Amino acid sequence: MDRDILYIEMYKLFKRRRAWIGPVLVFLLIIISFPLTLDINSDNPPQIYLSFIWISTLLVTMLGTELIFSDDFEDGTLEQYAVNDQLIEVVFYKILVHWVLIGIPLAFVAFLFILSLNISIQISSIALLCLIISNLIFINFFSLGNALSLKKGSILGLLITIPFLIPVLIVLGKMTTSALLGLSLVGHLSLLVGVMILVASFIPFVISFILRTHLE
Amino acid sequence: MIKKFFHQFASPKSYFAIANKFGKPVLAFFFLLYIGALVWGLFFTPPDVVQGDSYRIIYMHVPASFMAQILFVVMAITSAVFLIWKLKLAAYVSKSIAPIGAIVTFFALFSGSIWGIPTWGTWWQWDARITSTLILFIMYLGLISLHASFENKDKADKFFSVLVLIGVVNIPVIKKSVDWWSTLHQSASITLTSKPAIDPVMLYPLMFSIVAFIGLIFGLVILSSQNEILKREKYKSWVKNI
Q1: Distance from B221 to chain A by nearest Cα, in Å?
Q2: How far apart are CA A166 and CA B170, in angstroms?
Q3: Do A209 and B162 make contact, defined as CB atoms within 8 angstroms?
Q4: ipTM confidence score
């Protein structure tokens, strides 16, 4: 594993401030619009807000990974890596960097919002953990979708990848209900972690296969 | 000898010749068989005690929902064959399955909705089976649009096959996860699984219609794959000589 690639990728994304601050701000705007459209002081169950948060993080991580490969594809950087046989590492590090700079900040913004709803600190921290884990899964799959739909627009990528993410959404929804009922979450959480490990170790290979096919 | 047979059969040219000879008779045979099954089911079986005559749509709904999933699995097998052995024919076949699968899945959803109105009192219920079928339908549409969006069809075949393989892993997962989700939210009164065992008088025409429908759909797949071969290999000399 070449550590330099990680630093380069980190630097490249960090320099493009709009690419990682932008999604977080968009997410903040979406979150601000919840209290405007739903009466936050009424007795709506907290689950409603949590499910809104799952769905909006799904969409915002999609926005955040929209340009994950296209710039490097256009200027030939990916081809260089492919020649050096480092494509898998690049894909892996790109996903990691996007998770650190977009996925985790989104999770913390959502955590602040959940705290503001007077939901107990235990449930909020579990939700934070779930968001951090599930954002990695989302980013992996959306990178796959964006690798497939390079130069074709992101609607195609969304259309293809959201069906794959539905099980994750269902597990998240099930977790929130059990958390609010006070049931144990160890089973769901370990399932989510397992899915994360599987996805994060398997999808980069698929993505590098797809990118190699693009470069042929 | 077997190897030689496979090599011959796997070339689009000889497949086309064989399909040209047998495709249409097979399709016609299963079409008539399916019509026969429908006639048997619609006119020669007694009405259901609870559902009356409305249950008779079972002879269209059950084969369609069955095929909706089988076609995806078949598509995954042909895609795997394409990715592993680089057989172009397999890619053509799996590409031509996708639209048929989408139509069959839509038909399953549609007939289910029609059946739901008299029996459940609603045309849609967010339960496990219906939701997973709807996701399946959207997956078919996504695959079709993915294949259509690439000018370079060889690339499109590869992406399509990779995605089908990820999708087929996902199908049981979706089914299972939707099951968990619905067991929490919904009483079991309206699930199809808890229906009492079906009477032989209705079971035999049902089996008959399922078999006939499988044959009918595979006949259609053969015809549609022939079409795809002609489209993709139109610059080859053997196609020009037809």
Answers
A1: 23
A2: 10
A3: yes
A4: 0.87
Check residue B178 and give its pLDDT.
66
Domain range for B132 is 59-240
Mean pLDDT confidence for A189-202: 92
Listed in sequence order, the residues at least 6 apart from B185 whose beta carbon sits closer than 8 Å to its beta carbon are B126
DSSP-based three-state secondary structure for A105: helix
**pTM recorded for the entire structure:** 0.88
Q: Tell whether B43 is covered by a domain.
A: no
Which tens digits make up the pLDDT trace of A146-186? 998 887 877 888 888 998 898 888 888 888 888 888 888 88
Contacts of B177 in chain A (CB under 8 A): 166-167, 170-171
User: Could B170 and A163 be called an inter-chain contact, meaning their C-beta atoms sit closer than 8 Å?
Assistant: yes
Q: How many domains does chain B contain in total? A: 1
Cβ-defined contact of B162 to A210 (cutoff 8 Å): yes
Q: Is B36 part of any domain?
A: no
What span, in angstroms and rounded, lies between the C-alpha atoms of B139 and B72? Answer: 10
User: Tens digits of per-residue pLDDT, B91-114?
Assistant: 999 999 999 999 999 999 999 888
Q: Which of A183, A213, A214 to substitute to test the interface with B, most B CBs within 10 Å?
A: A213
Question: Which segments of chain B have a pLDDT < 70?
Answer: 177-199
Q: B177 and A164: CB-CB below 8 Å?
A: no
Distance CA(B179)–CA(B184), nearest Å, equals: 9
Set of chain B residues whose Cβ sits within 8 Å of the Cβ of A148: 146, 159, 163
| B68 within domain boundaries | yes
